[in-house]
Amino acid sequence: LKTGLRKTHTQIVHGLDEFFISKQDKATREEALETLFELLVQADVGVKTSEYLVDKVKSRIQKEDYSDAKIFKNILREEIFNILTATRENPKGTLENPLQSLADKKLPHVVVIVGVNGVGKTTTTGKLAFKSHLRGQKVVIGAADTFRAAAVEQLAVWAQRSKADMIRLKEGSDPASVAFETVKKASENNASICLIDTAGRLQNRQDLMQELAKIGRVIAKENPDAPHEVLLVLDATTGQNALQQARVFKEVVNITGLVLTKLDGTAKGGIAIAIAAELGVPIRYIGVGESVEDLEVFEAHEFVNALFS
Ligand code: GDP
Fold first, then answer.
1. End-to-end CA gap in the chain
2. Would you tell me how many other CB atoms lie within 10 Å of the CB of residue 212?
3. pLDDT tens digit sequence for 50-90
4. Is ligand 1 within 6 A of the CB of residue 4?
5. What's the gap in Å between 46 CA and the centre of ligand 1?
6. Closest CA to 30 of 45, 19, 21, 41
7. Distance of alpha carbon 215 from alpha carbon 209, whole angstroms
8. Is the distance from the beta carbon of residue 280 to the nearest atom of ligand 1 less than 6 Å?
9. For the chain, is the Cβ count within 10 Å smaller at the N or the C terminus?
10. Could you read off the pLDDT of 143-174 as tens digits, one per residue?
11. Would you say the CB of residue 294 lies under 6 angstroms from ligand 1?
């Protein structure tokens, strides 16, 4: 995670350090807060959340402490941590411990993965499958993005790696049929986890809403508790666009968690803070590279540690 956030760390924390050094311990309150605001906005924390953080810091720092970089950074760190942990929890349990949290419920744990094309949805589905496989769980994958043959092929490779069964129907089939077959197969095979990769065409909000709603209805027919998770995948490198996508998806479907991909190699990691502050949906995983092990469970304290150390 530390390497994944290096550029964002440089943008915010290194930027603050440079400011305080250049002021040789004589920074004024106005200068310090203005610099903080600019650095946060440049790291894609967004104007609204940056203003919120600046206000919080302002209300907690004594005037004479504005020249102390350490006090300043500690308070900022605490406030960022507070934002990242204030998000609501998913009552149906998390993907990390489905067997434990769903001990008295009907398996499989059904996860629907949504997001715009190109954000890393297929890769994330594959990485999740592999994680489950390593935990010794049986996985069934549903290739419900029936419009992109290449995406289905890519998913098949991931499925093979994870020894997972994969349900695919012919190109252009109803995505809800794929979802239904996937949950059915998972129940029949006593699989623990069912991952359904959906299509992400945002051009027509109405179509997307109908498609995702239908997938939800059809799955619930097979298992009334499902879906247990709806994970929205967002590409961190797109900064404020990711936030905009999240707003749209939140309108059409009940998102239970977020996956923020491509945090490696971007200075826009501040988007994680903006998304948590504005949407109140917990970030569950972060993607920090293209290979199978590059998906990490999101932990707020690790995130701030990596950002500030
Ligand atoms: P989809 O269209 O949303 O299914 O996106 P894909 O899963 O096909 O991913 C699009 C591209 O992003 C691929 O080249 C992936 O290897 C890459 N990708 C996905 N997640 C990450 C990540 O966390 N870090 C990096 N650097 N690349 C990623």
1. 11
2. 23
3. 999 999 999 999 887 888 889 999 999 999 999 999 877 76
4. no
5. 24
6. 19
7. 10
8. no
9. C
10. 999 888 888 999 999 999 999 999 999 998 99
11. yes
